[in-house]
Amino acid sequence: MNTVTANGLIVLGWGLSVYLVYSMLLGPFDGRLCESTCFGMLYWGALLLALLGTILGVVQIIKRESGLASKIVMLLGLLLSIMLAGVMVIGTLTS
Question: Relative to the CA of 26, which of 34, 42, 47, 57 has its CA 20 to 30 Å away?
Fold first, then answer.
């Protein structure tokens, strides 16, 4: 059950990240349905889902209850977490 939960959280995190990028590239800022607050919520939601899924994936690997597919999905969650954290660091350093 935890493996399915971890994989689902990571997939949802990737989905939110893709939607965030899509929303940001949709057009001029005045015509968008999603503005600054919405972008922030999408960003933090994607980061939270990626981190929770990665943590649950690591727990499953430690318990040795996961297969190769779960390990790959956990690595994708870790990659997403690193990318989103990198965006946060870059944004903090440039502001």
Answer: 47
The pTM for the full model equals 0.79
What residue numbers bound the domain in which 40 lies?
2-94
Count the Cβ atoms, other than its own, within 10 Å of residue 34: 15
Residue 56, CA distances (Å) to 1, 3, 46, 65 in order? 11, 7, 15, 11
Packing angle of the helix pair 36-63, 68-94 (nearest 10 deg): 140
Residue with tokens 């949709």: 26
CA distances (Å), origin 91, targets 36, 68, 69, 88, 95: 14, 35, 33, 5, 6
pLDDT exceeds cutoff 80 at 26: no
